[in-house]
Design brief:
Strand content: 5-15%
Number of helices: 9
Number of domains: 1
Largest sheet: 5 strands, parallel
Order of helices and strands: HEHEHEHHHEHEHEHE
Strand order of the largest sheet: 4-2-1-5-7
Shape: globular
Bound molecules: S-adenosylmethionine
Distance between the termini: 45 Å
Number of strands: 7
Helix content: 40-55%
Radius of gyration: 18 Å
Structural class: alpha/beta
């Protein structure tokens, strides 16, 4: 069985994604996408006409960094220092970055299947039994995405650093921040993997008003997407 359930949850919904993509393309500025996630907005922006070399994407997670390192021509996947700690999942003698990347993505998928209930246990068994086919399918998806965004710049960076670096620039900024506290830490918990993980804390949804405060008076064109109850007070000078 091939798994079609998304590995990454929380992509910017289509309507918002296309709106952002068109705005970014029409503004014709360097485009900074913090919290790049599954790069769905980067992909849409490039499709809308933004040159990939004008895109500066960033995130802190392994899932996003694998994609970013494959898409940025100045980066090498091996520099992420990924090591598989479970000998039964080890991959020996593979020099093909897409093969390795798809294998690691599938380990992330396996980790999402809970071992504490029967459903999760069966799903893990099925995935392990169809590993090679599932890895090929994962590889095809990865290749398509990377092809669509190839040539972008990517870095591992905290959204707060990106905001302080670009807010006074003549640039466009977009972020869709995490909606749930520690949501991505839990989504991609990987005790069987090690990598050069940055010591940057996941963005806390409670800090969203602070982000608005910082971006309100910014010179750059800033767009944010957040799906939640609107309990926060939006600063009056915040661009809408
Ligand atoms: C809602 S998702 C973004 C989805 C993306 N807009 C898309 O459509 O593909 C949020 C992302 O923020 C990232 N993230 C969490 N804390 C961060 C931080 N402090 N700095 C940068 N990125 C962070 C997570 O790793 C996750 O990939």
């Amino acid at each position: 069985m091939i798994y079609t359930e998304p590995l990454f949850l929380g992509i910017t919904p289509t309507g918002a994604r296309n709106y952002v993509a068109e705005k970014v393309a029409s503004l014709e500025r360097p485009f900074f996408n913090a919290c790049a996630g599954r790069f769905s907005v980067v992909e849409a922006a490039i499709k809308a006409g933004v040159p990939p070399q004008n895109v500066f994407a960033s995130d802190i997670g392994l899932f996003s960094s694998i994609i970013g390192y494959l898409a940025d021509p100045s980066k090498k996947l091996e520099d992420l220092g990924i090591r598989i700690l479970d000998p039964s999942l080890e991959l020996k003698g593979v020099n093909d970055p897409f093969h390795f990347a798809a294998h690691v993505m599938l380990i992330l998928k396996l980790n999402q299947m809970k071992q504490t209930n029967l459903r999760g246990l069966y799903r893990r068994e099925e995935l392990l039994a169809s590993w090679d086919r599932s890895r090929d399918a994962m590889r095809r998806q990865l290749e398509t995405l990377v092809q669509n965004i190839a040539g972008i710049h990517y870095e591992i960076a905290d959204i707060w650093d990106v905001v302080s670096r670009v807010s006074q620039e003549d640039a466009t900024f977009y972020a869709s921040v995490p909606h749930y506290a520690r949501g991505y830490t839990k989504m991609f918990a990987a005790p069987n993997l090690k990598w050069n993980q940055p010591t940057i804390p996941e963005f806390a949804p409670k800090d969203f008003p602070l982000l608005l405060e910082k971006l309100g008076p910014a010179k750059c064109h800033a767009l944010l997407c957040r799906r939640c109850e609107w309990e926060e007070t939006i600063p009056v000078n915040c661009p809408t």
